[in-house]
Amino acid sequence: MKSLKTFFSVLLIMTGMVLIAAACASEPIEVTVPVEVTKEVTVVVTQIVTQEVEVIITPEPGPEVPYEERWASSAHAAADTEPFRHWDAEDPAEVPETCAKCHTSSGYQDYLAADGSEFGVVNTPHQPETLGVTCEACHNDATISLTSVVMPSGVEITGLGDEARCMQCHQGRSSKVQVDAAIAEAAVEDDVVSENLRFINIHYYAAAATKYGNIAQGGYQYEGKTYDANFAHVDGYTSCIGCHDPHTLEVKVETCTGCHTDVETVEDFKNVRMAGSLVDYDGDGDISEGIAGEIEGMREVLYAAIQAYAADTLGAPLIYDAVTYPYFFGDANADGAVTEGEEGFASWTPRLLRAAYNFQVVSKDPGGYAHGGKYLIQLMYDSIEDLNAEAVAGLTRIDHGHFAGSEEAFRHWDEDGGVPGSCAKCHSADGLPLFLAEGVSISQPTSNGLKCATCHDSVSEFTRYAVTSVTFPSGKTIELEEGDDSGLCLSCHQGRSSKAAVDKALGDKELDTVDEGIRFLNIHYFAAGATRYGTEVQGAYEYNGNEYAGYFEHVPGADQCFECHNAHQLEVEVEDKCSECHEVSSVEDLATIRGEETPDYDGDGDTTEGIAGEISTLMDALYAAIQTYAAENATPIVYDTHAYPYFFADDGTGAPGDGYSTWTPRLLKAAYNYQYVQKDPGAFAHNGKYVVQFLIDSIADMGGDVSAYTRP
Prior knowledge:
three-stranded mixed β-sheet, 31% helix, elongated, disordered N terminus, single chain
């Protein structure tokens, strides 16, 4: 720039910064300014002597901004898009307190008190962004120490790392709590339209709400139902920034190919489906499609159920528009499209609001299939069922046992915040690997069932942990032959008690004397390994002086856990294995299997029924003997297989009262064996003869008549 001055001052003014430079008129004036002010510089000179001089303004090299180019390509930097420009036409043009936290960098810092204000609240409107979400939003004194986030439900998720910065915004704006509050305020029955109800929106990209499932309660969770919790994925990829580049926001595709070998692009993730999800959620018969396809299929079923309910039950057809607020519209002309003059849907009932809210939860998290797909499936299934119970026919809500994360086996400890060491080996995702490595169990976080790394020591090669010996609750150890992978299964499917534990608890107490110190001992669930090894591990109560069957060897090719059961679905391989020797075509048919030379164990004269039938008759006889003995020697007793502690005092009507407490040693032994068989539903196949032996012995010890039985 040129100016007629001989000696002057140059004032550079921008953002309150003033620099002064002076020089003689005989030489050009060179002014160096910070790089950030070079676009808006005002040069003001004061005349002393008239003379033409030259002023040269040179930007001062500024500090290099890390990851600036990566950030510039992200949605956070797209300052000209709707998330940042939505308020430009407002009067005044400012972002309100309710939106500023996530739509302005200054509002985000305001919320986190990085500006010295109150933490956890935005107190004033903020100016619309010109640069998007800038470096200062995520990199400041407040975010450095950030380790928790409060979700819209009011739940605080703690123990976080840098992903806490992401989760402040990517959590949605509503939850089950807000939906329940609106319904409570309307105070109407489920199917009654209320003018006080309006659609509640989760808002966009609530990935954290999806990921943290029943912890965050971002979706509408129906009373009486249980849901998956935090989706932990695999080590190193359990947080937002573990999977997403924090600056470009893109998924780190190249790091995923170690396990997902068919993935080359982000779109390919929609085709991902692992062995822990081998059920047909959406009922279309395709279990090879990715979880994204299952979610979309179920979403279509939910939308159809919503429309049918609105039209048939309320007489108010509706339609959904994903990009137009308020998303749900009355479809007055029933043309299936939002047309001019059709307004936001207004005939809301509590039942419809819950389902529509969940539909939006799924719709507004496009990566939900990866963030917590099974949680979304559960939300939709329950919404469909609530609208029309018949509409869930053919749909599937949960996975097979090891992966049924919403079920009691994994959700039992949610209120405690973790799985205790005594249970963690088998009821948490990381408990078994720790036990195999260190030989101990410690408390673990709750999980959504087992994960790949629970059984596979390499999740890229999918090799399994080699377990060559297993110690059972009795203290007895089984050494496995080379090539026998059953040890991995036996580590958990062994029960939690044994004859040794029962004998230790009873000591030398009088057999028929009630003792307040006796408590029921539970074998626990699915102790198939203990059944199969019989007297070698003494999982059942074996009566002294009697002999018992040992390991049930079966036949080559079908004598290991993995050879009979599918390792992931857990179902018996009936068609591939059993049908070669037995006339069976379904799992139910297995109960009819009986050896040609099998005697009539239960004495009912039927030598055609399967071993399962023989055991069933003996179970009935044992329960009758237990009840007779209890009524004569202690307190009348009843059993409930689904309720802890399983044995209850008869309340006088034959129904369960309080937990049973008047045990005698003799009664405890028989009750222990009765529970043993109840909790191994495949006992007839795992080692039927062993089971028949200890059942007959239990009946005899209870004083029952066993003269008609044949003991193997």
